[in-house]
Amino acid sequence: MTESSVACVILAAGKGTRMKSDLPKVLHPLAGRSMIGHVLDAVATLAPARVVVVVGPGMEDVTAAVAPVPTVIQTRQRGTADAVRAAMPVLSGFAGDVLVLYGDTPLVTADTLARMVAARRAATDPAVVVLGMRPSDPGAYGRLIVTDGTLDRIVEYLDATPDERAETLCNAGLMAFDGRRLPELLDQIGNANQKQEYYLTDVVEIARSRGYPCSVVEAPVDEVLGVNARTELAEAEHLMQQRLRRAAMNNGATLTDPASVFFSTDTRLGRDVTVGPGVVFAPGVTVGDRVEIRAFCHLEQVRVADGAVIGPFARLRPGTLVGPGAHIGNFVEVKNADIAAGAKVNHLTYIGDAVIGAKANIGAGTITCNYDGFAKHKTEIGAGAFIGSNASLVAPVKIGDGAIVGAGSVVTLDVEADALAVARGRQQAFPGWAARFRKHKR
Ligand code: UD1
Ligand code: MG
After folding, report:
1. Annotated catalytic residue: which of 238, 327, 347, 440?
2. Is the beta carbon of 170 within 6 A of some atom in ligand 1?
3. What percent of the chain has pLDDT over 70?
4. pLDDT tens-digit map of 433-442
């Protein structure tokens, strides 16, 4: 183990009762990724030697979600120090720096974590570095008591005197420890407080009593928002979206109305992409250069190649590939389909489980009838084919390259390349019929 290595302990054993949810709190998503996933992403930037997540009994879905990161079970929630104790077997023999984070504090950035580690390694060699913040309403947060520039102790709100409650520097919860001194400090923590819990925050006073220095790193409040209820989840989502919108614009995308565009953490946009108002990027979307995504589109697990034009009002569902320069227009739904370069699907259409060749033109109202009530079937449309408006293509079916399908056709048989297929009732004409009809009705 090298002196410079870092281990991370993420506390997530809390029940999250205030979420009023069947889903463990830390699995609630922000920008398409679970809260604990965000914490793990931030932690990964430190290239930690060890990571462990502390969960409560019955939280198997958290264990599954964080794998291969190991979890330990804290049998009873007896406080944050007790939770860190539960993780100690995983840290045995570890002599580097130990960072303790909360699974429900998902907005913390890699930069802040790096600053905490750097502060831990400062020449003063603090045993504990605490992340501080100055919220506009300090509420029930623990207060950091600093004397002559050094952190003396943390006092929990319930145990604080009126003077201590007036302190505005609060405990954000995250801490960095010298791994060699952590076990002896943890051993000393008792539960003689209002809640009769083992408070990790007591570690500071214990360290100071042994003559070890402790210090504070301050973080912007919007990085350390803790999510305990759905209202805070919405607030965290808002902050996360603001970050993602700013990053998209900084990377060369134009967002006409940034506040109305929703990203996932894994959304990838190329250069000179334009995104109109009201666009939602669900997880798994990659967009090439010079793509225009017009107003009110929804995309999920989709790849859009350079120069394509999407929307307005298009829905691209999982498994869709839109080729270079292809157009997907208004009120078009596409699912699990490969749409080749320059193809056009411009109006009121459903394309599902299909392959559409280069430069094919799919007329308004075309439906690929992919589902027979039991299984999904494929529609293959060749390059340069022309599908007339309001055609129903009953899959499995193939339309050859350059073929034309007459408007209103219900196509159940394959169509050869360059053929015309018309599959609809033949038109009949009855001269004068309409005039006679009206006269009779009068
Ligand atoms: C804690 C801090 C407080 C700080 C605040 C910041 C302590 C004693 N107090 O208070 O100073 O201002 O965070 O948000 O640390 N957890 C476990 N097992 C437990 C108890 C908690 O895993 O037995 C986990 C929770 O799931 C959560 C985190 O630890 O992720 C913090 O616990 P929580 O009960 O929210 O602490 P606070 O009372 O908010
Ligand atoms: Mg809390």
Report:
1. 347
2. yes
3. 99
4. 999 999 999 8
On whether both 21 and 43 belong to a single domain, the answer is yes
252-284: pLDDT as tens digits = 999 999 999 999 999 999 999 999 999 999 999
Give yes or no for a contact between 288 and 306, defined as CB atoms under 8 angstroms apart: yes
The domain of 271 spans 230-421
Is it the case that residue 319 has pLDDT exceeding 60?
yes
pLDDT > 60? residue 118: yes
Write the residue with the smallest CA distance to atom 11 of ligand 1: 142
Cβ(341)–Cβ(358) below 8 Å: yes
Question: Phi and psi at residue 137, in whole multiples of 5°?
Answer: -120, 100
Q: Is 347 assigned a catalytic role? A: yes
Q: Specify if 64 maps to a domain.
A: yes
pLDDT exceeds 90 at position 15? no
What CATH number does residue 396 fall under? Answer: 2.160.10.10
- CB-ligand 1 contact for 156 (6 Å cutoff): yes
- One domain for residues 128 and 277: no
436 lies in some domain: no
Is the same domain home to 183 and 235? Answer: no
Instruction: Tell me: do 163 and 32 sit in the same domain.
Output: yes
Domain count, the chain: 2
Do 349 and 286 sit in the same domain of this protein? yes
**pLDDT tens-digit readout, 49-106:** 999 999 999 999 999 999 999 999 999 999 999 999 999 999 999 999 999 999 999 9
**Domain containing residue 40: CATH number:** 3.90.550.10
pTM of structure: 0.93
Assess whether 237 and 208 both reside in one domain: no
Is 433 inside a domain boundary? no
Whether 388 has a pLDDT exceeding 60, the answer reads: yes
Residue 362 falls inside a structural domain: yes
Domain boundary among 224, 254, 288: 224
Ligand 1 centroid to 168 CA: how many Å? Answer: 19
